[in-house]
Amino acid sequence: MPLGVAYLASAVRDISDVTIMDAVAESDHEEPMDGDFTWYGSALSEIRSRIEDFKPDLVGIGCIFSSIFPVIRKVCREIKAIDPDIITITGGSYPTFMAEHCMKEPALDMIVLGEGEMTFREIIRRLSSGASLAEIDGLAFRDGDRTVVNPRTTWIEDLDTIRFPARDLLPMDAYKKIGIPHSLSFSGKNFAPMITSRGCPARCIYCSSTRFWGNRYRFRSPENVLDEIGGLISRWDIGEIQFEDDNTTANPKRAMSIFRGIIDRGYKIRFNFPNGLALWTLDERLVDLMVEAGCYEMILAFESGCQEVLRDIVKKPTNLEKAIKITRYIQHKGIRTDAFYIIGFPGETREQIRRTFRFANKVKTDLAYFFVANPLPGSELHRIAESRGMLPQGFNFENLTYSRSAYRDDVFPNGELERMAGRGFVKYAFRSFLRRPHVFLKRFLFDLFLKRPRYTVQILVRIWRRVSGAGKP
User: Fold this and answer.
1) Which candidate among 126, 247, 349, 469 keeps its CA 20 to 30 Å from the CA of 79?
2) Quick check: helix, strand or coil at residue 80?
3) CATH number 3.40.50.2300 given to 3-150
4) Three-state SS at 379
5) What's the pLDDT score for residue 64?
6) Do 182-468 and 3-150 have the same topology in CATH?
7) How far apart are CA 395 and CA 385, in angstroms?
């Protein structure tokens, strides 16, 4: 479910007519695009038809990743072909940090920078009254041939004042039928994502999300979170929550209140954390409560198996010795565990990367994902890569993925990091199968292949290309 646009719809539905088209969920149309990407979801003709039927004054398009921006371009151009007076607007991390670049697209009229609810509401209010947009906080727009970027200076301090996402405008029945979660895991098809906080108190160099949310950590009250869970259960019979926060347990006391509330209110749900959990926030008491409340899986964000890399390069406040101890305890409680690792940070040696693979094999989570460090716009890693001249001339961020290196060949040879990450994943998956074949077979044969064969084949093809070095890395 696209929670970002659902939050925006909820914020303005009392002052405007609004509808949502989840173009990914509403169609399984596929067509190849430039490079290694595929257009998946509603074709332009379907999008055009919906716009012509609704006759909007404004169309907003979500842009979660930089690789989606080529789609934004095509959709905006299609909208202007329908009616040049329709206002086009987008938002998300990439447009926020690359606003002037993105605004070079003539068919795109505006970009909401960072947190969108207040800005989006103010745009509609001013458009309705004919007032100027010039002073709106957190807005990039075009003034003649000039792009104006108003930096965001204000934030919603009390997240409880934000209305719950307008899920009633989403195709809720379609999600049950499709059954594709954010991660590879779910306990049943009737699940829903939730966000209970914004930002993170850590300052890891690879992350742009913290800056996107204003370099501050804000969270909803436990009561507000529990009320939303209750609504999901009563209205849509949701049986599983996937907490999508950057750092759900950053405030352990608040997290415990949420999990205790799930128990006290008698909510019979299961839950996991597809975005990962910060190991430095966990202790045995919190883990016990999470298990009692219905947690069935924890994805643990180690990022590196080398303490020096975490301390001196990544700036992540994780002590690996303590992290191993709490991981052992989580595994002892019968919780399924996965792990996130990143390789190829600036200044990281090949021996330190090999130490990460050895560390992962020592920890023995059920599965481990190995990603290539990428300089996301807005992250400290991006600033470092640019200041050190690590990126190729004219590098296109719209080709950026977590499985592909962005560096020049003299930083890391072409395809080296991709092969290391791909082979690391395959070797780890094989060892995982030998350790716990029943868990591995359930996740990959029953949950993935038998239920989503085409999706699974696509994953295997991508893994093979990374391992073999075939094709463009």
Assistant:
1) 126
2) helix
3) yes
4) coil
5) 87
6) no
7) 12
User: Which residues lie across from 368 on neighbouring strands?
Assistant: 339
* 21, 27, 29, 34: CA torsion to nearest 10: 30
Q: Which two tokens stand for residue 422?
A: 């791909």
| Type of residue numbered 184 | L
Between 188 and 407, residue with greater pLDDT: 407
Nearest C-alpha neighbor of 197 from the set 120, 290, 115: 115
pLDDT, tens digit, for every residue of 387-435? Answer: 999 999 888 999 888 888 999 998 999 899 999 999 999 899 888 888 8
Instruction: Report the alpha-carbon distance of residue 431 to residue 139 in Å, rounded.
Output: 50
Which tokens belong to 71?
A: 């789609």
Please give the single-letter amino acid code of residue 426. Answer: V
- For residue 163 the two structure tokens come to 């209305």
Domain boundaries, the chain: 3-150, 182-468
pLDDT of residue 188: 74
Q: How open is the CA angle 303-305-311, to the nearest 5 degrees?
A: 75
The one-character DSSP state at 444 is: I
The H-or-E segment that residue 367 falls in is strand 367-372
CB 389 within 8 A of CB 410: no
Residues 6 or more apart in contact with residue 313 via CB below 8 angstroms: 205, 345, 346, 347, 348
**All residues at 6 or more sequence positions from 237 whose CB lies less than 8 Å from its CB, including other chains:** 190
What's the topology of domain 182-468?
A: pyruvate-formate lyase- activating enzyme (3.80.30)
Tokens of 408: 């020049």
Query: Do residues 46 and 25 make contact, with C-beta atoms less than 8 angstroms apart?
Result: no
Q: Which of 130, 156, 131, 141 is nearest to 8 (CA)?
A: 156
What pTM, to 2 d.p., does this model score?
0.92
Tell me the two tokens of residue 236.
């849509």
CA distance 153 to 114: 10
**Widest Cα–Cα separation across the chain:** 66
